[in-house]
Structure formats: structure tokens, C-alpha cells
Design goal:
By secondary structure, this protein is an alpha+beta fold. Helix content is 36%, strand content 22%. A hairpin with a 2-residue loop joins strand 14 and strand 15. The protein is globular and about 80 Å long.
Length: 645
């Protein structure tokens, strides 16, 4: 069949023979991203979670108490549990041993039809088979009924029938696999990434002991996670760098309409809410019905209690959910038989019955807690009343920003040097600290597509400020107005005036601090800008090297040393160490940091499956407590280079 497309003849065959039939696990190897999200480091680590999820399912069913995860040399992973062991008997529908079905057939497992597991955290029954498909090789050993069984697969294909290899007095499953380096962009497992997720799993599965070992180095690292207090200990862990307002952790637990509900919460003296929701131990970053039920219940319960106990006067307005959740750390964990997920990323729970279940359990048990602990109830309501007054002041400040934005360019910040192109796709804004650097940037820029917004000094640390102070801050108002999106509930990404927001600060400790302050503001109040890839960090050079009328720039010490080795180390070298952007003239700033053809930009990204870890870093770096910040810096200093210390 011949056709013409844009003047070019195209020959294509499309018939029955052109329809590909991918047998077995070939579909997974052909399109791995459909099954694990991506073939990046995130997808690589997801393989481990899928195997561990199967062991967690055994724990949820009451049969497993210990899970051991080991990173072996050559980035091989071993996961061992003491559950019942994957069935080894023949599955008569498939005519194969149960274990072979689990590892070689998609959508096969004990997680369907309410059979083997009532609730499950695994990925719709595709977990083990997907890991097998994306591994160079995988071996499974099963300890069951006094016997040991083993089978090996390579790139998803069975190498030999399941065989009995000995006797044993233990039960459980051992899976060893090596990810396929031809599929993944990288195959180096990160110990800290695995530690974070396994700790989370242990918090969410009360009583389970999960051990992580890394045997790739001469001195192996081993950590065990075991929390008899479950999510109560999780709240305590999240609040470890904050100051709780009361000692007790409020805990609600119950079963409603077949849904198991667990909630733990505690207020601290910060101004941010840290609420994390889970379904069958899987994080739901976009929330859903269980989160809605939780929020409805605490808003109604606290308002009813406050009115009945006269903690709210007749003149007081009802407290909003935002007022009551200021400084709240909460974990909502439910177990449900058939979870239904919504949204593009399938990270939002859609089961409407979950809302009623959580609302009922939390309302009922929270009422009892408040009656038994009137002092705590008073502390929470007094904090919420302060938040309410601050919210009113913040609303007035936001209204001012809103009015300015509505008038478009006539009320853009006076210090903003805007660009002439009005198509946001073509435009970018540089956020620059100081008038000196701002002056150079304004001269250097491409006036058609590059806008410059100089800020005076270090912006407000929003981690330690209430909303009324934040929204009345001149520098923050300037950024909100310049971006055009509005903020919080008024935020509209479609109104973004610039495709790139570029933070350009000096390449020293002060510059890093200013950049962190800006990122804290964006993360807390305009996170979609980061999630959708609009935020970048400029990378100005550290050194200018001049020799024989030729000029080079080096962006770090390694580049400087390599360059000096190349051009020769002698007395003719003139090396200038830039103290700040203000030391560069406009031409130098353009060719090193602002020219789209030559510059280096770092895109700021967020892994929302690890939101608690992101939140913890911001609290540690920008919060009130000095000791955790010192510990963080000491631990991570070895990974940081080229700071002016």
C-alpha cells in the first residue's frame, strides 16, 4: 500500500500479519515503563519493592514475621521471608507449579477473588512476573512442608522445571535476582533509597521486622526496622525534628464495612501540615476518599467539641480544616479488599466507601479521646484559633496580590525587567539575588525572552513563618505577581507567564542558602511548578582562566584541574575565583550562565512517592532545631563540592 504524506511517498503494510503477538513476558520487556513506571533508578528500585510487597502480603495475612533484604556484590538483590512459601503444587488451570505461574504469567497470583489474600499491596498481581521479566536472571527457593524447591529463570524464561533440592525445617521464600542492564538506564542500587521505603513498610505493618543489608563494601551496612507501635511510632519519627504540642499521639483504629482503618496524629509547633495516606501499605500521594474522610471527621469533631465546651465563643467563626491541620502530622492507613485508583498516575483512591469508613472510625474515637483529654483538646483548638486569625490576615494580603495580578502588566513588580515576547513557552525568568547581579543580568539578557527579577537579600524562611507574614512579604509578593499563577487554592498553572523559572545565585554557601529558601517557598506553596518541571537552578562558573589572550571557564575544582593539566601549569595562567555573580560583567554572565546555547541548568524534580523524605529534608534544613541540621550537614558534607567554606 502506497500513500503520500507531506509530498513524500510512504509505503506501509498494515494487515493481520503486522499485529505483534508478544508471548509470555515479552510484552513487559518490550514496554517496561508500562509496568514499573520507568527504566530509571526509580523503576530499578521498584523491582525490590514488588518482591518485598509479596512478603508483606504474607505478614498482613498473619504468616510472616521477618523479611531480610540484601544488596549483594554486582548489585544482585536477595529477599528472604519466613512466610508460608509460594505454593509449589500444580495449578490445574495452567498445568504448572504455582510458583512458576506466579513468576511467568502476568496477572496471576493469590491476590484475586479473595482467595489467598484478603488485602494486598502488590501491583495487581503482576509484581513477581514483571521483576522476573526485567531481570537478567532470577532464582526462587521455597521452603515448604519440610522440603526445599528451586527454579531459575533467565530474562523471564524458565531454565528447568521446579525441582526438589533437599529437606528443611523452615518455611518461606527466597528470591535472588539481577536486573537486566540492557533494560535499565542504571543498575546501581541506592542503600538510602531502599532504607527509606523499607522503614516506611515496617511502620505500616505493625510487628514485622525488616532487615536491610548492603554487602557491596568491605564493611557491610545493616539496619533493622521493627515497630510494635506501628503508625504511632511513624508519627513520632516524622516529628523527631519538631516540637510536639502535647505528648500523646492520638490513635484511632477500627473496622467499618470490611475496611480496616488506622489513623495516628499529633500537632507540633510548626505551620505546615504533614499528612500521608496509604492503601494496603501503598502510598497515595494524591490522597483520595480515605483522606477526604479523615479531613471531614476532624473538622466536624473539633468544631462540635469546641462549641459544646465553650472553647469557641458565639462570635468565633467555625474553624476550617486548614486551621485545625496547621502543624499536624498524621498517617492514614487503610486496608481494603478491592482498591480502585484514579488519576493519571493511579495514586488517588477512588472507593467512596473508604470515605465513610474513615470518617466514622475517626469521628467516633476522636470524640472519646477529646473527652478524656480536655487539656490536649484545648491546646489544639487554641492553636487553630491563632491559625484562623493569621489566615484572615493572610487572605487580605493575598487579596492585594490577587488584585495586582488581575491588572496584568500595569502592576507587575517595579523591579521586574520583563521580556517582550508574550508567549510563555518562549519565556524564562531569572530570580537573582541583589541589585549588582540583577544589573549585570538585565544588561546581559536576551530582552525578547528573558525576564529578570532581582530580590533584596535573603527571602523569608516560610518553614518558620505564618501565612500572614509570608503573603505580606514584599519579595514573596513580587515572585507571586511575576509568575502570574496565583497561590494555594488560587493556583492555576495555565496562567504561568514563563516556561522556565531559573534561580540564579552566587556559587557559595550564601548563594546555596538563598536558593534553598526559594525552593522551600516553591515547594510549600507552589509545588506544581516543581512537579511539572518549570523550576531550574543556574550554574555559574567558579573560575575564569586566562592565558595568552585566551579565556576559559571552570564550573568546579575538577574542571579547573583538568583544564590546567591541558593548557599547562605555569606563571602565564591568570586564575580568577568568582566571589559572586556581581563580579562578572554582562558579557561574561551571558556566555557562561545565561546563553541557552552554552549554559548549564539543573532541573529541580520531586519524587512524590517519597514525599515524607522530601518534607523531612526541608524541616531539617529550614526548621527551628539546630542539632538535626548540624547532623544532616556533617553526614552529607562529603557529597557537596565547591562551597565557599
Amino acid at each position: 500500500m502506497s500513500n503520500e504524506l507531506n509530498g513524500t511517498e510512504v509505503t506501509a503494510e498494515y494487515g493481520a500479519d503486522q499485529i505483534q503477538i508478544l508471548e509470555g513476558l515479552e510484552a513487559v520487556r518490550k514496554r517496561p515503563g508500562m509496568y514499573i513506571g520507568s527504566t530509571s533508578a526509580r523503576g530499578l528500585h521498584h523491582l525490590v519493592y514488588e518482591i518485598v510487597d509479596n512478603s508483606i502480603d504474607e505478614a498482613l495475612a498473619g504468616y510472616c514475621k521477618n523479611i531480610e533484604v540484601t544488596i549483594l556484590e554486582d548489585n544482585i538483590i536477595k529477599v528472604v521471608d519466613d512466610g508460608r512459601g509460594i505454593p509449589t503444587g500444580i495449578n490445574h488451570k495452567a498445568g504448572l507449579p504455582g510458583v512458576e505461574v506466579v513468576f511467568t504469567i502476568l496477572h496471576a497470583g493469590g491476590k484475586f477473588g479473595g482467595g489467598g489474600y484478603k488485602v494486598s499491596g502488590g501491583l495487581h498481581g503482576v509484581g513477581a512476573s514483571v521483576v522476573n521479566a526485567l531481570s537478567n536472571w532470577l532464582e526462587v527457593t521455597i521452603y515448604q512442608n519440610g522440603k526445599m524447591f528451586k527454579q531459575r529463570y533467565e530474562k523471564g524464561k524458565v531454565m528447568y522445571p521446579l525441582e526438589e533440592i533437599g529437606e528443611t525445617d523452615r518455611t518461606g521464600t527466597e528470591v535472588i535476582f539481577k536486573p537486566d542492564e540492557t533494560i535499565f538506564e542504571e543498575t546501581e542500587f541506592d542503600y538510602d533509597t531502599l532504607r527509606q521505603r523499607l522503614r516506611e513498610m515496617a511502620f505500616l505493618t505493625r510487628g514485622i521486622k525488616i532487615t536491610l543489608a548492603d554487602e557491596r563494601e568491605e564493611n557491610p551496612k545493616v539496619r533493622s526496622f521493627h515497630y510494635e507501635g506501628g503508625i504511632k511510632e511513624y508519627v513520632d519519627y516524622i516529628n523527631r525534628h519538631k516540637t510536639p504540642l502535647y505528648e500523646d499521639i492520638i490513635y484511632c483504629e477500627g473496622m467499618k464495612n470490611g475496611i480496616e482503618v488506622e489513623v495516628a496524629m499529633q500537632h507540633n509547633d510548626s505551620y505546615q501540615e504533614s499528612t500521608y495516606s496509604f492503601v494496603n501499605n501503598i502510598t497515595t500521594p494524591e490522597g483520595g476518599m480515605h483522606l477526604t474522610g479523615f479531613r471531614n471527621s476532624i473538622t466536624k469533631t473539633f468544631n462540635d467539641y469546641g462549641r459544646n465546651r465553650k472553647l469557641l465563643s458565639d462570635k468565633d467563626q467555625n474553624l476550617t480544616g486548614d486551621d485545625l491541620r496547621e502543624g499536624l502530622t498524621a498517617i492514614i492507613s487503610i486496608k481494603i479488599e478491592n482498591p480502585q485508583f484514579e488519576g493519571q498516575t493511579k495514586q488517588k483512591l477512588g472507593n467512596s466507601e473508604a470515605r465513610g469508613a474513615v470518617e466514622s472510625v475517626v469521628s467516633e474515637q476522636l470524640k472519646i479521646f477529646l473527652e478524656l483529654n480536655p487539656n490536649i483538646a484545648k491546646i489544639i483548638i487554641e492553636k487553630a484559633l491563632l491559625a484562623q486569625r493569621a489566615r484572615e490576615a493572610a487572605r487580605k494580603a493575598k487579596d492585594m496580590t490577587r488584585r495586582k495580578t488581575a491588572l496584568e502588566s500595569s502592576t507587575l513588580p517595579g523591579k521586574l525587567a520583563d521580556c517582550s515576547d508574550k508567549n510563555p513557552e518562549n519565556c524564562e525568568i531569572y530570580i537573582v539575588e541583589g541589585d549588582s547581579a540583577g544589573g549585570s543580568a538585565k544588561t546581559a539578557r536576551n530582552r525578547a525572552t528573558q525576564a529578570i527579577l532581582p530580590l533584596r537579600g535573603k527571602i523569608l524562611n516560610v518553614q518558620k513563618a505564618r501565612k500572614d507574614h509570608i503573603f505580606s512579604n514584599t519579595e514573596i509578593q513580587a515572585m507571586i505577581t511575576a509568575f502570574g499563577t496565583g497561590i494555594e487554592e488560587d493556583f492555576d498553572i495555565d496562567k504561568l507567564r514563563y516556561n522556565k523559572i531559573i534561580i540564579m545565585t552566587d556559587a557559595d554557601v550564601d548563594g546555596a542558602h538563598i536558593a534553598t529558601l526559594m525552593l522551600t517557598f516553591l515547594y510549600r506553596y507552589m509545588p506544581e511548578l516543581i512537579k511539572q518541571g518549570h523550576v531550574f537552578l543556574a550554574q555559574p562558573p567558579l573560575y575564569k582562566i586566562e592565558k595568552n589572550k585566551k579565556i576559559w571557564y571552570a564550573y568546579n575544582d575538577n574542571e579547573l584541574n583538568n583544564l590546567l593539566n591541558e593548557i599547562g601549569r605555569d606563571g602565564n595562567n591568570k586564575i580568577q575565583r568568582y566571589k559572586g555573580l556581581g563580579e562578572m560583567d554582562a558579557e561574561q554572565l551571558w556566555e557562561t550562565t545565561m546563553d541557552p546555547e552554552k549554559r548549564v541548568l539543573l532541573k529541580v524534580t520531586m519524587d512524590m512517592s517519597n514525599e515524607e523524605r522530601i518534607d523531612d529534608v526541608f524541616v531539617t534544613l529550614m526548621g527551628d532545631q539546630v542539632e538535626p541540621r548540624r547532623e544532616f550537614i556533617e553526614k552529607n558534607a562529603k557529597y557537596v563540592k565547591n562551597l565557599d567554606i
